[in-house]
Design goal:
Structural class: alpha/beta
Bound molecules: FE2/S2 (inorganic) cluster
Shape: globular
Order of helices and strands: EEEEEHEEHEHEHEHEEEHEEHEEE
CATH architecture of the largest domain: 3-Layer(aba) Sandwich
Largest sheet: 6 strands, antiparallel
CATH topology of the largest domain: Rossmann fold
CATH class of the largest domain: Alpha Beta
Radius of gyration: 21 Å
Strand order of the largest sheet: 4-3-6-1-2-5
Strand content: 25-35%
Number of strands: 18
CATH superfamily of the largest domain: Nucleotide-binding domain of ferredoxin-NADP reductase (FNR) module
């Protein structure tokens, strides 16, 4: 889609939001809480941004971008080169982080700019009258985007802010908060790497299917090259087409399949979105993704970061 940037808003220190509209004022494709769009950034990069306005709103999309000095240039280009009135290209919304409508209670944990998909969830949960609580962790009030929007909920004690001033020991005690999962509660979390690691560890004992998360800003997975265990190419059989593709130890499955001319869908190519997920029926792939649980890994592999350890049969 071609979209016009209608406005750019300063949300907090280092964070801008971009309001995107259809160039002719037409309604945009509908989106659900947790959805994102892939945006083509000046310079040819593509980045995934969660939609943080109210789900179902079709007049505009809002995305928020934290300027990351050590990034590969995506956030800097958005901050420096995208202005009101510009046109940008974006994908239609896709959702790899949906709310589970069967959950009795939702617990939302946001780390920094990871608040964006959770903001849309807050709107959705409020509109449907479902109970929830949110903990929003940032370094300081100055770096807390959308605090004004959350203020009425903070006043009611539904949203709690935690500012650690750069030292996680001063912030939310995540392990304590997640120690005893209440029956029927689902956990949703998104934030930077250290935050994700802490929440993942603290929620490892939660019941299967109750923990949902999304990584943002993930760099492509530098999947370990397991040369010692797999010195030769390995045949990967494609069950639907009947083809066999040889995969070398230095290739991901996606690279090998594309080199062989097999069309495969992908998006993040970092093992975080699930677009390239494919079922397998024989063999044992090497998983390097960040999103599949053990049960899912027993039947599926993410091609963009997975490798062939043994001969494999893929549902392709
Ligand atoms: Fe996103 Fe593979 S393309 S997980």
């Amino acid at each position: 889609m071609k979209l016009r940037v209608r406005s750019v808003t300063w949300e907090a220190e280092g964070i801008l939001s971009f309001e995107l509209v259809h160039p002719e004022g037409l309604p945009l494709p509908v989106f659900e809480a947790g959805a994102h769009i892939d945006v083509r950034i000046p310079g040819g990069l593509s980045r995934r941004y969660s939609l943080c306005n109210t789900p179902g709103e079709r007049t505009h999309y809002r995305i928020a971008v934290l300027r990351v000095p050590e990034s590969r240039g995506g956030s800097r280009a958005m901050h420096e080169r995208v202005h009101a009135g510009d046109f940008i290209e974006a994908s239609e919304p896709r959702n790899f982080f949906p709310l589970d409508d069967s959950a009795g209670h939702a617990l939302l944990l946001a780390g920094g700019i990871g608040v964006t998909p959770l903001l849309a969830m807050v709107e959705r949960l409020q509109a449907s009258g479902r109970p929830f609580a949110m903990h929003y962790c940032t370094t300081s009030p100055e770096r807390t985007a959308f605090a004004g929007r959350l203020q009425p909920l903070a006043a009611q004690g539904i949203v709690t802010h935690h500012h650690d001033r750069g030292d996680p020991r001063n912030g939310l005690d995540i392990a304590r908060l997640l120690r005893d999962p209440a029956p029927g509660t689902h956990l949703y979390y998104c934030g930077p790497a250290g935050f994700m690691k802490a929440v993942k560890a603290a929620s490892a004992h939660w019941p299967a299917g109750t923990v949902h998360f999304e990584y943002f800003g993930a760099e492509p997975q530098a999947a370990p090259v397991n040369v010692g265990a797999c010195a030769d190419t390995v045949p990967v059989h494609l069950l639907r087409s009947g083809r066999t593709v040889q995969v070398s130890p230095v290739q991901t499955l996606l690279q090998a399949l594309r080199d062989a001319g097999v069309e495969c869908e992908s998006s993040c190519e970092a093992g975080v979105c699930g677009t390239c997920r494919v079922d397998y029926s024989e063999g044992e792939p090497e998983h390097n993704d960040l999103i599949l649980n053990e049960e899912e890994r027993a039947r599926s592999v993410l091609l963009c970061c997975g490798r062939a350890r043994t001969p494999l049969s893929l549902d392709l």
